[in-house]
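Entry type: protein chain
Record version: 2
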Amino acid sequence: MKRIAVIGLGLIGGSLALELKKNSWATIYGIDKNPEHLKKALELGIIFEKASIDIVKEVDTVIIAVPVNVTPQITKQVLDIIEDDTLVFDVGSTKAGVCETVKDHPKRGNFVAVHPIAGTEFSGPEAAIYDLFTDKVNIICEQHLSGKKMVEKVINLFESIKMRNVFMDSAEQHDKHIAYVSHLSHVSSFMLGKTVLEIENDEQKMFNMAGIGFASPVRLAKSNPETWTPIFLKNKENILKALEEYIKNLTEFKEILNKESAEDIYAIMQNTNKIKEILNGIKN
């Protein structure tokens, strides 16, 4: 990779640009609809040069890191004008929409659908950091529809920033699973923050009392609504299913708490403690 275009200079796009600039010495061109993002990315050294969408005709790699509601449209636009040997991949947390949009495109083989599982609650070019992806998982979806060389390039790219690649044949299955392990967590965090803010009028007193038990689960409520509103809408059906099961469990807990059934409360928590075995293997 010698010339890379990054479309969308937020946390993920900006952090990828930093890593690839460091690892590949490639020239990084930045594209963003927000002129302030472009200015800040240039000031911070995230990109080498501001550019328009037409630059994708001249680069060997295009990274699409925009909100998921516009990813399909932009991906198609990029595929329409790239050269035959250009790699294109998106990094959105929903995959079904973009994969469906480009499934019959003549240059579908140039596109690889990926989802690096990494992030923070911060946004914009200022949020971009080195080592965001280290020891995290990158999901590659529908590799059988992408060109072999393009998949190899993606594998090598993410391995170079110390990510572990895993593969999923179905974009729909990706979206179903990610609704439970990521999107539901964000809904829960936003709603927990909303609940406390609505009930607790004395904000200073509330935050003086708040410890890690509150700060940790509500951390994701600081995430950017501009990013997460389209994610929730794009993955609506899967998130609704996850919410139904979550609400069922909350209702069950409410009922046994009302009954003051210590044995049932203990049993639920003890059974759920098994998740420690899984979470202990995940590096933050």
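Comment: The chain has a mean pLDDT of 93.
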